[in-house]
């Protein structure tokens, strides 16, 4: 099936204003890099999202979900098939002591909404640069808290395009893993169960964690966020720092001088620059310390034509 046929069919499902051909992914990722997607579709309803999945399954079309592009590196050759982006499914509301957030909402915004309603338990997420769906997939955590500590249940699309409800136990949340990741589910909505707290205490905690993030992380440059998982018994950033890699890189990509666990797009880096810098880091750390760094970030898409 060619791109024009896919575009025609998807506009019938999602609406003409929500489907884009040959869309540059650099505008949809926090690294500000990446080639073009054949088709980018941004459904505005749960049913449209489910129908898109059914369409890809029926026609065996390559498919990828894009969260808010915070944990993803898109190769310079772009992405074939269909990319779905939940940017229009990003509402957040409070129901009693629960925060109900759609999959495309930013997890930071959900945390701030909880704070604004004097609900405690969500403060740890005030600096996590990802979507609610992405946070659920990876059981995101920071500063001593994890998604599994507060999740109640999730509504998601399964691999066949059916909308299902998953309880906390059914989500099988563990370190950077979940049943959503293992089975390729798509999060439409997550319900977080919190507790009433003291407004000043909550705000002070959020302000402190925000300050820590802003002073310790290189937020002034585009990046994928934390590149590597924490290896057992070590800290990835410390290994990279001790390997004297800060300030080094390929092309416009560089290991941050502010936080060694980050690789930044310092000056018009290509995805190829970024990925080669990742490999430089992995190779050097392996040589110096015998530790194999595992990616936390996801690399997708195809190599540019000149590298094939």
Automatic annotation (TrEMBL):
Its EC number is 1.3.1.98. The active site is at residues 176, 226, 296. The keyword Cell division applies. Pfam families: FAD_binding_4, MurB_C. It catalyses: UDP-N-acetyl-alpha-D-muramate + NADP(+) = UDP-N-acetyl-3-O-(1-carboxyvinyl)-alpha-D-glucosamine + NADPH + H(+). One of its GO terms (molecular function) is UDP-N-acetylmuramate dehydrogenase activity. Pathway: Cell wall biogenesis; peptidoglycan biosynthesis. Residues 33-197 form the FAD-binding PCMH-type domain. Keywords: Cell cycle, Cell division, Cell shape, Cell wall biogenesis/degradation, Cytoplasm, FAD, Flavoprotein, NADP, Oxidoreductase, Peptidoglycan synthesis. It is found in: Cytoplasm. Its cofactor is FAD. Its main location: cytoplasm. GO terms for cellular component: cytosol. The keyword Nucleus does not apply. One of its GO terms (biological process) is regulation of cell shape. It comes from the Bacteria. Gene3D superfamilies: 3.30.465.10, UDP-N-acetylenolpyruvoylglucosamine reductase, C-terminal domain (3.90.78.10), Uridine Diphospho-n-acetylenolpyruvylglucosamine Reductase, domain 2 (3.30.43.10). InterPro entries: FAD-bd_PCMH (IPR016166), FAD-bd_PCMH-like_sf (IPR036318), FAD-bd_PCMH_sub1 (IPR016167), FAD-bd_PCMH_sub2 (IPR016169), MurB (IPR003170), MurB_C (IPR011601), MurB_C_sf (IPR036635), Oxid_FAD_bind_N (IPR006094). Belongs to the MurB family. HAMAP family: MurB. Cell wall formation. NCBIfam families: murB, PRK13905.1. This is UDP-N-acetylenolpyruvoylglucosamine reductase.
């Amino acid at each position: 099936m060619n791109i024009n046929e896919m575009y025609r069919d998807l506009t019938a499902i999602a609406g003409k204003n929500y489907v884009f051909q040959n869309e540059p992914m650099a505008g949809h990722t926090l690294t500000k890099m990446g080639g073009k997607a054949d088709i980018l579709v941004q459904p505005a309803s749960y049913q449209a999202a489910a129908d898109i999945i059914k369409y890809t399954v029926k026609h065996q079309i390559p498919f990828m979900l894009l969260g808010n592009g915070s944990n993803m590196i898109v190769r310079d050759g772009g992405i074939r098939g269909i990319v779905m982006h939940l940017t229009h499914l990003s509402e957040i509301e409070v129901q009693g002591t629960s925060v109900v957030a759609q999959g495309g909402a930013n997890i930071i915004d959900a945390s701030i909404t909880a704070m604004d309603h004097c609900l405690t338990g969500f403060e740890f997420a005030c600096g996590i640069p990802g979507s609610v769906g992405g946070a659920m997939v990876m059981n995101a955590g920071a500063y001593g808290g994890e998604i599994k500590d507060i999740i109640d249940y999730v509504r998601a699309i399964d691999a066949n395009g059916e909308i299902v409800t998953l309880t906390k136990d059914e989500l099988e949340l563990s370190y950077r893993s979940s049943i959503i990741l293992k089975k390729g589910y798509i999060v439409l909505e997550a319900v977080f169960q919190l507790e009433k707290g003291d407004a000043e205490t909550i705000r002070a905690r959020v302000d402190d964690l925000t300050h820590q993030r802003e002073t310790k992380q290189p937020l002034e440059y585009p990046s994928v966020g934390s590149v590597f998982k924490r290896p057992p018994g070590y800290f990835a950033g410390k290994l990279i720092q001790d390997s004297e890699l800060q300030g080094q890189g390929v092309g416009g990509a560089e290991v941050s001088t502010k936080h060694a666990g980050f690789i930044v797009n310092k000056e018009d880096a290509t995805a190829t620059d970024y990925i080669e810098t990742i490999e430089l880091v992995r190779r050097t750390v392996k040589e110096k310390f015998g530790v194999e760094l595992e990616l936390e970030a996801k690399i997708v898409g195809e190599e540019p034509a000149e590298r094939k």
